[in-house]
Structure formats: C-alpha cells, structure tokens
Design a protein that fits this description.
The protein is an all-beta fold. It has strands spanning 7-9, 12-16, 21-26, 32-37, 47-49, 52-56, 62-67, 73-78, 88-90, 93-97, 102-107, 113-118, 128-130, 133-137, 143-147. The radius of gyration is 15 Å and the shape is globular. 38% of the residues are buried.
Length: 149
C-alpha cells in the first residue's frame, strides 16, 4: 500500500511504499526508473531538491538522501525513533520531525545534524518554513516557531 503522497520533479514521480521501497516512475510511460529497497515502511512524502530525494522511514527512524537519477544513497541520518513527518528542504537544510519528540535540522549536502529541538512528545507533522522560522506541531497539540540558532 501507499500512504505517502507522491512528489513529481522533471518527468519522474517519486513515492514511498509500505513494502519498504521508494519508487521512481516515468511520468510519460509509467515505467519504473529505479527502486530503492529497504526492510521498513515509508509513510512520509518525499521532498525533492537539487536532484536529491529526501524521505524518512516509519519504524527505523532513518532519513535518506537519494540521488534522483538512480536511487543511490547519498547519505543516511538516524533519529531516535520512527519518522512519520515528511521532510522539508530550505536552502541547504533538511528539516524533519521524529517520534522521539525532536525536530532535526540536517545539512542537506553532508547529512550531519546542525541542530535539534526537543518538544517532549512525538512530532509527526511536517515542518513549514516562513521568514526563516521553522513551524512544527507535536502530539501534545503544541505548535512551535523555531528560529535558526
């Protein structure tokens, strides 16, 4: 099954699946371009920026940066728990929430943590960014506006 919303860039659709795979599909022919295979579900929607696909895994708590052309792993970032928050990319930073209660700011090129903020309860909402402020909600019903440190 597919719970992830697809992302479209150029002439390719990218989508994660409950079968543990991320698929790249040609928009013209509907043919498969590549498949990235893992052992864990993808429920988040992929974000596409600078020829890279950013997508998180539900149970394993891993955020992947995949090459949009062939699906190879550029880097992998591990959070403290599962990821149900879709990543948001701004400038050269990827933002993603985790069930460990943190939102992470990750260097889009290196896959290293720039900073994190703990909200005390799971973050399953997807971050939004406006005027250099990162907005995200948690399971306690709080919404946080975080400025870059």
């Amino acid at each position: 099954g597919v719970r992830s919303s697809p992302a479209v860039a150029d002439d390719t659709v990218y989508v994660g699946s409950f079968d543990g795979n991320v698929y790249a599909v040609d928009t013209e022919e509907g043919s498969e371009r590549w498949v990235f295979e893992t052992n864990d579900d993808f429920v988040t929607s992929p974000a596409v920026a600078d020829e890279t696909i950013y997508i998180g895994q539900q149970d394993a708590g891993r955020l992947f940066a995949l090459d949009a052309t062939d699906g190879t792993v550029r880097w992998e970032f591990k959070t403290g728990a599962g990821i149900e928050s879709s990543a948001t990319v701004a400038d050269d930073t990827v933002y993603v929430g985790s069930e460990d209660g943190k939102i992470y700011a990750i260097d889009a090129n290196q896959g290293t943590e720039r900073w994190s903020f703990s909200s005390e309860t799971a973050i399953k909402s997807s971050p939004a960014i406006a005027d250099n402020i990162v907005y995200v909600g948690n399971e306690s019903g709080n919404v946080f506006g975080l400025m870059e440190p």
